[in-house]
Specification:
Layout (H helix, E strand, L loop, with lengths): L1 H18 L1 E5 L10 H12 L2 E8 L3 H8 L6 E6 L8 H15 L3 E5 L2 H14 L3 E10 L2 E6 L4 E6 L5 E5 L15 E4 L29 E5 L10 H10 L2 E4 L1 H5 L20 E5 L5 H4 L7 E6 L12 E4 L2 H13 L2
Parallel strand pairs: 1-2, 1-4, 2-3, 3-9, 4-8, 5-8, 10-11, 10-12, 12-13, 13-14
Antiparallel strand pairs: 5-6, 6-7
Helix pairs in contact: 4-5, 6-9
């Protein structure tokens, strides 16, 4: 009887899992799929096997083709209209609501990027449900683990809402493989444009270095560098390692580097193979943005700096002596 009961519970659980349907809102630039969408797809698969991706843009056929190759995606909804220029949440929200009304998804998710965090709370409000942000683990179809307090604590949330809306922290889930997929595409008719706001332009900082959120090696500097000019040390080190360069909020607030280099709770989330923290004390706000890195190296002259508590390797030294020595050693190899 005990074995039979367990088998019955397992079958009911499997049936419930198959009945779940998740809409993953794809993030892209009309040319390439943003990597965090692949992490969101992996998270969605943990909820259930019926995964649909929404690809909305001005001319996003190429992106839809990329999504069709992702393993685990069954259907792609494609919406193309000039009103989606700039991917404004005011325009995308009615589209998501229309898709939800037609297909009755049980879950709606996206990556916990600026795009996802700007869009999904608005969708949740329109659906009159709670938005669950920064999900790092999915325990069941209605139970999620998310980060709070600048990433220094975890909380388990169980939602009784009929539709679960959540954003996924990319570093917490493996990227879904872009091979083995066979999703079919379906064109959807966009609802009438809202025209509540207008996309004007976007100014991007161009760099020959790897993109910060996808780089395998990141060299990051803090207030210990003391000036904008001294950040050249990190650029030189990064060039030898083919690394991206980031910064703490303190360095950004001091005007050493621009905002798009900030790593932390209010900046970018990274999880490279190697993270080198130079002159960074290790405030909670910063740790939340890089603590999932595979190997962390810290260089700081203060032996009591909190960064050493999470570092795999620590060097108590003057960075203005240690970093030039590292650069010279790398040049000799």
């Amino acid at each position: 009887m005990y074995t039979s009961l367990n088998r019955c519970v397992w079958r009911l659980s499997s049936l419930s899992r198959r009945c779940q349907s998740t809409l993953v809102v794809a993030e892209h630039d009309n040319d390439k799929l943003t990597p965090i969408t692949l992490n969101a797809i992996t998270a969605a698969i943990k909820v259930g096997q019926d995964i649909t991706c929404l690809v909305a843009g001005t001319n996003c056929t190429k992106v839809a083709e990329q999504v069709s190759m992702v393993k685990g995606v069954k259907k792609i909804l494609v919406a193309q209209h000039d009103c989606y220029k700039g991917f404004l949440p005011e325009e995308l929200t009615p589209l998501i609501l229309a898709c939800q009304n037609q297909f009755k998804f049980t879950h709606v998710c996206a990556g916990a990027s600026a795009f996802g965090k700007n869009l999904l709370p608005r969708v949740a409000a329109k659906l009159d449900v709670a938005a669950i942000s920064d999900v790092t683990e999915i325990k069941s179809q209605d139970t999620f683990v998310r980060t709070i307090y600048a990433g220094n604590a975890l909380v388990t949330v169980r939602s009784s809402d009929g539709i679960k809306v959540f954003t996924v922290r990319g570093t917490a889930f493996q990227a879904a493989p872009m091979e083995g997929g066979s999703a079919v595409s379906e064109q959807v008719s966009p609802p009438p444009p809202v025209r509540a706001s207008q996309w004007v332009e976007q100014s991007l900082t161009k760099s020959d270095r790897p993109e910060l959120t996808s780089a395998k090696i990141v060299v990051s500097g803090g207030r210990g560098l003391k000036s904008r000019d001294n950040f050249k040390l990190l650029y030189d080190l990064a060039d030898e390692l083919n690394a991206a360069v980031g910064a703490s909020r303190a360095a950004v607030d001091a005007g050493y580097v621009p905002n798009d280099m900030q790593i932390g709770q209010t900046g970018k989330i990274v999880a490279p193979e190697l993270y080198i923290a130079v002159g960074i004390s290790g405030a909670i706000q910063h740790l939340s943005g890089m603590k999932d890195s595979k190997t962390i190296v810290a260089i700081n002259k203060d032996p009591e700096a909190p960064i050493f508590q999470v570092a795999d390797y620590g060097l108590v030294a003057d960075l203005f002596k240690a970093v030039p020595e590292m650069i010279e050693a790398l040049k000799k190899k």
